[in-house]
Amino acid sequence: MFEENDVNRALAKRIFLDRLDECIFFPKYFVVETINACNASCIMCPMSTREKRTVKSMDSMLFDKFADEVKLYADWIESVCLNKDNEPTLDNGLAGKIRKLKDAGIKHVTISTNAQLLTPVLIQSLIDSGLDDIKISLNALHKETYEKINKGLDYNKVISNTLELIRQKKQFKWKLAICLRMVVQDENQSEVEEWLDFWSEKLGTGDKAYALPKHSWGNQLFEENKDKMRLFEKKPCVSPFSTMLIDVEGRVCLCCIDHETKFFMGDFSKQSIKEIWTGENFNKVRLLHSSSKRNEISLCRGCDIWERKYVVSKA
Fold it and tell me: Which helix (H) or strand (E) holds 135?
């Protein structure tokens, strides 16, 4: 299906495949939105720009359907993330969903959170469920900067919750991996080095803190420049070859930047993962990316979400 060339071979290697054609078998990664709400309004996130919507949680039967199908491919799947552009800790059933995936044999389950609701009680329930990895967004070191970026969140509570998580992990020797991340932008650029130094001193074995530049959400927050669009035109994105995103109602969108499902790829409430992944919509996107025609897709023009350079400080 895909041309044999150095670019496509490198892409295959990146997702642990011998040939890029093998990607059609089943997604390697999943992002599943179990609740469509967030308790913050961050200035670099599209959630802050769209209209308020009715809060919904994923139907338990739909999630069970997901768990049942991925169980058949547990050895193939690399990771499942239980949030999209929402705040996963708002889902009261989050720990139970993690446990279902771990019982299904999924080797790596992760969430990304702002830590506002990450109380000791919730932390313990997530640990008991078998959570493997937690990513916490901490977009500034100082209170004034933090609350300018992360509107609606309480800086003191977020920092306290994060430090308590780190403390408990060290005390009880949990295997949970903690990743702290900062999205670098004009408001916090001067704090990056100080932020990295502060958090790397706090973290334990296997944990890390990293800073990465903000992105345009596929030209939806700001327009990528023409040079960047030309540069990335010949570089296929890893996402359509590796990752499926399912929203709270079962709709499958193009990728993680397609926060309003502008590109509808399928409906998991009516189809199987396998049907959607091998279907016409995904195959069309893959062919465009693998043949240097990604700019025909508006969200993909100049998008570097999976190519950004991280500044990492390991514990």
Answer: strand 133-137
Could you tell me the sign of the dihedral formed by the alpha carbons of 251, 290, 287, 297, in that order?
Answer: positive
What is the reported pTM?
Answer: 0.93
C-alpha triplet 292, 23, 29: angle, nearest 5°: 105
Q: Pairing mode, if any, of strands 243-246 and 251-253?
A: antiparallel
Tokens of residue 16, six digits: 């642990």
**Cβ neighbours for 199, distance < 8 A, ≥ 6 positions apart:** 138, 180, 209, 313
Alpha-carbon Rg for the chain, nearest whole angstrom, is 19
Handedness of CA 187, 314, 218, 220 (dihedral sign): negative
Three-state SS at 223: coil
DSSP 123: H
Rounded to whole angstroms, how far apart are CA atoms 301 and 73?
32
- Profile the chain (315 residues) by mean pLDDT over runs of 10 residues: 87 94 97 94 76 86 98 98 95 98 98 97 97 97 96 96 96 96 95 95 94 82 82 92 97 92 96 98 95 93 84 63
What CA–CA distances, in Å, run from 123 to 65, 156, 204, 315? 26, 18, 16, 21
Count of H helices and E strands in the chain? 11, 12
